[in-house]
UniProtKB/TrEMBL annotation:
Protein name in the entry: Glycosyltransferase
The Glycosyltransferase 2-like domain, residue ranges: 6-121
PROSITE patterns, A to Z: HEXAPEP_TRANSFERASES
Coiled-coil portions: 280-307
Amino acid sequence: MTLAPIVLFVYNRPWHTQKTVEALQKNELAEDSHLIIYSDSSKNDNDFPQVKNVRDYLITIIGFKTVTIIEREENWGLANSITDGVTKVVHDYGTVIVLEDDLVTSPKFLKFMNEALYKYNGHENVFSITGYSFTDDVVTDVDSTYFLPITSSWSWATWKDKWSFFNNKNGDLIIQLQKESLRKRFNFNDSCFYSEMLSKQHHNKIDSWAISWYSSVFKKNGLTLYPAKRLVQNIGYDGSGVHCGDAQQDKPLIGFNYILTDNIIVKKNISLLVEQILKKKNNQNLLSRLKNKLKKTLKKILTAQQKQLLFIVISKINLLFYKKNVGKKSYVDKSVHVLGWQHVRIGTNTLIGEQTWLNVNDKEENVDHIIIGNNCYIGRRNLLSSSLKIIISDFVMTSNDCKFLGNNHIYSDPMRPYILTGTTNRDIQKIGANVWVGAGVNVLGAVTIGHGSIIGAASVVTKDIPPFSIAVGNPCKVIKRFDFKIKQWVSVEFFDADKEALMPLEYDYIKVLRQEGKGFIMPKMAATSKFGDLM
């Protein structure tokens, strides 16, 4: 199997670019893949420093078979740059995998894309592959992979013969879409606004290669392969991207084993499910846009005193509805202190112990900054202080006095009061499924504690802990791993790294935990003293 080249389009976001490349470097096929990077030139003087920072980083990239950097001398814009770059690369190589600079991939992403390119090569109706998924949150059974008649711009791959149909002139299609039945099909049963986007593109109100690609595929009745769970995460929902704005962030990726389907058809049940998901999402986005418009209007007409009064009133109203973010059978003690309830989400059958503090720092519109899963026990006097996100997966148990500090104080300038310098706001801290955190543990910064792990009391975690580990100390170090071959914890010096292949991925692990913990109800008395001494 000949591997497809990876084409990455970057501009002025060094942090996003680095995260995208670092994720690719962890992919199984990275060392055997060609990476081709198109770096667009700055639009103006303000963007120049960040463009330079990106380009300074690009020349340090290793971990691929080859790294080719094309630095544009003029600003092409994303649409023109992608159209030109994809056309050249797919002409030279026959296939292409396309990413933008805000897409973090799972370690299996390249394997999935290349295997799918190989399997469906030559099939008349298969036009593209994507690592994105609409069904990531669907609990019911969904096929491991499935086809839809819509494309995705959040990671995609195609072949030379299919890209040859790309056409950014679609005036004929716009005329045809005046027919209601065709327009409805083009808009995926009215679950998307594709016809509106196409019209705006045609009248030069937006500059989108993606709607032109979808239109080209639509004309040929083409299909796109999707995985049931995402193999790519969009980290561009922070206002830094061209088209992402400030919508809700994607959740971090979980492990997922896929099977490429042999059914090259659109299954009605999956199509209807995705339509419902998209309709709900687009309705939420519409309400969010209306809300932001109202905010801007009020900011212009209200005095500072009126704004402050309105803020207090809205905060009190929001507080009445916070329970919508708390799942069934969960208990949050009345002594728990929360700053930013609208940015906190708590799963089902979860306890939050008394005097715990959930602190949301930089609050972003429609973003859950603190996410606590199902069947969790958060002990008494815990502190969760978020950067971009703190994610506590299912079945996590923490003892008393634990601290999860997702952000770091900025201290680069000692001539300024540290209380005014602020904190980092792009870090993600994740605690995997069925992690047991001992009393007094501190977890600091953008770290991940892998699923099935145990952290000893009073430990200070400053680096990632791999799955199924026992780790202790300050700084926290792994002392044991679980050997699935002999079903025992073994000292880390006797653990063969090859045995990690036997460990279940988090997605599969959670399925087992749900089965084992079926029907268990968390005892509320463990989280509060209000019931007195019952024993």
